[in-house]
Amino acid sequence: MKLWGGRFTKPTNQLVEEYTASIGFDQLLVEEDIRGSLAHVKMLGASGILSPDEMEIISNGLTTIRDRVRAGEVEFSVSLEDIHMNIEQLLIEEVGPVGGKLHTGRSRNDQVALDMHLYVRARTLEMIQGLLAVQKALVMQAEAHVDTLLPGYTHLQRAQPVRLAHHLLAYAEMFGRDVERFMDSYKRVNMMPLGAGAIAGTPFPIDREQVAAELEFDRLYENSMDAVSDRDYLVEFLANASLVMVHLSRLSEELILWSSEEFGYVELDDAFCTGSSMMPQKKNPDVPELIRGKTGRVMGHWVALLTTLKALPLTYNKDMQEDKEGVFDTVATLSGALALTAPMLEGMNVKTDRMRQHAEEGFAAATDVADYLAAKGVPFREAHAVVGRLVLHCIQEGETLSGLSLDAYRKFHPAFEADIHQRIHVEAVADARDVRGGTARNRVLSALKQKKEQLDETLAWLDTV
Ligand code: ARG
Asked: Which domains are seen in the chain, by residue range?
């Protein structure tokens, strides 16, 4: 007999039962479900809807079931459809018919919304922790490599020399914005839907504020229909997660390129690579490759949920059961990626000589040669053309900008003087960008300091929630 079997004359078709059941995945919500029920029954008791005895029996029953679940002693049943009805049935078996009073003033529609809010609220904080760990790893490497210069790239062509710290801190900025996004969406996750009932509220004199306080929610849903049909907070979570994955994927792509023999800028720790079953020389960057590869599925979950919601009329529709697997998979995928990225960055061996060699040997200082002439009063457009011819000359003669003599420079423009060589030294080129957000040593140092302060602020925020 189903918990809702009263108005039915036949048992459910076997295939229907399997097709509609969510217990296969929503058992992940077991802790949240029991926690929500404990708060609900406490309120039913305090409001006089249940007697103190009934409240006590049901609470103890729920606690016993939670212990049994934690001990791995409970097997869930598909015929009971979902986690909510499985727990309710277990409760009735545990404490007898009085267990059937737990669901007073509540529907699975507001119950499942509550469970998901509790689940995503905790996971949001975990994602922020993971993002902090990745940023800490970036800061650690940045601190070690303020004076490591490498070519910065545009169009994947060497553009201008930058400090490795600056390059890494660009990623820390992205992850910092990701943290802000999760902190902001947290406000909309931290809302309490219970009390909406199936759609319209409940005639029982419940105390929604008490349940919210018990479960440490900041706000209540103010509209019962919105409470049971809102999945915006899940869409936001998936959107935030997608963007984090995109950032991790871009970082991964750079690590993959940088660890190739062609670049040779970093070597990933052996513990984070795998070999080839056939080619003995291979050391493959599987971890960043997989992070890059798994980004698509997280983005897919976001699009899938939006699509599910797109034409749904109010309020709860069974379609909404489809919100869970994508969110669960996203949590697993993103936390795995964050947990691996931090130690991978920390253990990465940087080939500073190779980076410097590339920064020096290209034409990364060409803009600075043009700026040099411009500073001497040559119109920048003319200076650009002069340096273009200089670069062409170097390419044709197998020369470099730093290798050319002053005489050679003067053949291209009389404004060149003895200080030109010093001006195009990679450090000088980086230090010339002495603007806020630029590559000058002091600017990079203050960016590092600022980033560390931001990480401390996030830690302090985590203490307040
Ligand atoms: N398993 C359902 C879900 O995840 C719970 C809510 C079911 N409500 C209902 N009226 N069938 O969406």
From this structure: 5-104 (1.10.275.10), 109-351 (1.20.200.10), 358-448 (1.10.40.30)
Q: Which residues of the chain have pLDDT under 70?
A: none
User: Is 22 a known active-site residue?
Assistant: no
Mutate to test the pocket of ligand 1, among 78, 321, 322 (most ligand atoms within 8 A of CB): 321
Q: What share of the chain is helix, strand, coil (3-state, %, to 5)?
A: 65, 5, 30
What gap in Å lies between CA 254 and CA 364, rounded to an integer?
A: 19
Task: Locate the ligand 1 atom nearest the alpha carbon of residue 321 and give its number.
Answer: 12
Please report the atom of ligand 1 found closest to the CA of residue 324: 4
The CA 30 to ligand 1 mean position distance, Å, reads 14
The alpha carbon of residue 165 and the mean position of all alpha carbons in its chain are separated, in whole angstroms, by 22
Catalytic residue among 51, 77, 276, 405: 276
Active site residue 249: no
So what's the pLDDT on residue 97? 98
Q: Which pTM value belongs to this model?
A: 0.94
pLDDT at position 2, please?
80
The alpha carbon dihedral of 234, 232, 463, 127 has a sign of positive
Contact 108, 80 (CB under 8 A): no
63 preceded by a cis bond (ω within 30 of 0):
no
pLDDT at position 47, please?
98
Residues with CB under 6 A from ligand 1: 22, 26, 82, 108-109, 112, 316, 318, 320-321
- Count other Cβ atoms within 10 Å, centred on residue 88: 23
Q: How far apart are the first and last CA of the chain?
A: 43
